[in-house]
Amino acid sequence: VRFGWGRYFQEQAINELQVPDGDAVFQRAQRATHAVASIEHDLTESMTLRAEVYRKDYDHPFARHENLLNTVVVLPELKPDRILIAPDEALAEGAEASLRYEAAEQSAWVAYTNSRVRDRTGGEWLYRSWDQRDYASGGLTWRRHDWEASLAAAWHRGWPTTEVELATLEPFPLVGVDKRNAATVSNYARFDIRIARRFELGAAGELTAFLEVSNLTKRNNDCCVEYQLEDEEEEDVFLDVEARGTLPLIPSLGVLWKF
User: Fold this and answer.
1) What pLDDT score was predicted for residue 164?
2) What is the DSSP letter of 73?
3) What is the rounded distance in angstroms from the CA atom of residue 133 to the CA atom of residue 156?
4) How far apart are CA 120 and CA 145, in angstroms?
5) Residue 237, Cβ density class (10 Å: 0-12 exposed, 13-18 middle, ≥19 buried)
6) Which helix H or strand E contains 51, and what residues bound it?
7) Are the beta carbons of 50 and 100 closer than 8 angstroms?
8) Strand partners, 58
9) How far apart are CA 225 and CA 72, in angstroms?
10) Under DSSP, is residue 182 helix (H, G, I), strand (E, B) or coil?
11) Is 203 helix (H, G, I), strand (E, B) or coil?
12) Which of 27, 31, 96, 144 is disulfide-compatible with 59, CB 3.0–4.6 A?
């Protein structure tokens, strides 16, 4: 059984000053109070159960600029949905349970997390863009001599997003937004595999060749949304809202030399 409590102060790093958004002065340090409690128990010689709860209270959290709808863009500062978020305080809390199995040639693990991270702005609590209220993951690993193979899976509820609608056409088309991050995109799921072979090089060290494939099933996981005003005819203007996906199937082949 473990308990932890601490109070931390963090200043902005030099690379965190959002100059493209017009920030010219570093903000005052934010303060966070952390409280953590965890328990770990060996069910058998090879199986371990672990559970943890945590809470982090943030005072004076940094103000930040974010894109309201699509955060995965090359030049986010040029998008029209760029906004300033200046919370009065922030809160992150959650609980996690995991089960791990370790043997000579095999290992496996499963974990589930229920958490939330929110900002209080103007007296109202709003979810942050990276909030994950439910997250489940698991994996298998097989090792024999110089070979190793692993499979990992992850699932979580869809990322928070903000609903938009066409508010008016007069005197010009105007888009209205609902409460920030009150909705979510579709749920996220992914499978990854890795196969590796190790070669002993004697005095020259050790060489590992590996093949990794991310998003093995080619699932289209939505990350965010984009909108555009469409005009099919002179008097027929409508709002086209389209979900955007994250990375597709990505194979990767590489070598690692240790010496």
Assistant:
1) 87
2) -
3) 8
4) 54
5) middle
6) strand 47-59
7) yes
8) 32, 90
9) 10
10) coil
11) helix
12) 31
| Mean pLDDT split into 10-residue runs, the chain, 259 residues | 94 90 91 96 95 95 91 84 93 97 94 96 92 95 94 95 84 83 94 96 93 95 85 70 90 94
Question: How far apart (Å, rounded) are the C-alpha atoms in residues 93 and 114?
Answer: 9
Q: How far is CA 110 from CA 1, 121, 221, in A?
A: 20, 36, 21
Sort strands 82-85 and 64-67 into parallel, antiparallel or unpaired.
antiparallel
Residue in 242, 125, 128 with CA at minimum distance from that of residue 186: 242
Q: What is the pLDDT of residue 241?
A: 84
Kindly state the tokens that stand for 79: 């998008």
CB atoms within 10 A of CB 159: 23
The confidence score (pLDDT) of residue 230 equals 75
Half-sphere exposure of 222 (CA within 13 A, CB side): 17
The amino acid at 235: E
Residue 233: the pLDDT is 62
* Integer CA distances (angstroms), 100 to 43, 92, 141, 172, 243, in order: 10, 25, 11, 59, 36
Residue in the block written with tokens 């004076």: 60
Q: Provide the whole-model pTM.
A: 0.84
Give the bridge partners for 195, in sequence order.
Answer: 149, 211
- Residue 232 is predicted with a pLDDT of 64
Q: What is the pLDDT of residue 227?
A: 82
